């Protein structure tokens, strides 16, 4: 299941509805968005240190993304799109945004795609 496609919504999910984000939360979000091959924790640290704070708000985070995109020569739109649409495995506060919720969602989706309900025998095995 994908994210909602909105940076502000994802920011709130990553920060657990807090108004500020930490470098650790950013690095995990980048991992969830599969950006960690293009952008390392060292890259994010260098950009984050420019803010001279332990946490930054959404407005500063947008500026952080712009700085990071310039540093890594990546389009800022690509970063924003991947962050906005990624599945958060960091526990964004909803069932769909955690590993257990993903497993349940995947199981439900396979039932829908197969076009039938699981047998009683299958349900017993799932318990």
From TrEMBL:
GO molecular function: tubulin binding
Superkingdom of origin organism: Eukaryota
Pfam annotation, one family: p25-alpha
Transmembrane segments: none
SUPFAM superfamilies documented for this protein: EF-hand
GO biological process: microtubule polymerization
InterPro entries, A to Z: EF-hand-dom_pair, TPP/p25
Family per similarity comment: Belongs to the TPPP family.
Name the UniProt record assigns to this protein: TPPP family protein CG45057-like Protein
């Amino acid at each position: 299941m994908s994210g909602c496609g909105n940076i502000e919504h994802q920011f709130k999910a990553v920060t657990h509805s807090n108004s500020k984000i930490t470098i650790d939360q950013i690095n995990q979000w980048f991992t969830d968005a599969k950006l960690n091959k293009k952008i390392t924790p060292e890259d994010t640290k260098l950009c984050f240190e420019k803010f001279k704070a332990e946490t930054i708000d959404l407005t500063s985070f947008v500026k952080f993304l712009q700085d990071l995109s310039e540093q890594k020569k990546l389009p800022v739109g690509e970063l924003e799109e991947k962050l906005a649409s990624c599945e958060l495995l960091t526990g964004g506060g909803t069932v769909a945004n955690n590993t257990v919720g993903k497993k349940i969602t995947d199981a439900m989706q396979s039932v829908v795609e197969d076009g039938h309900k699981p047998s009683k025998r299958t349900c017993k095995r799932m318990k």
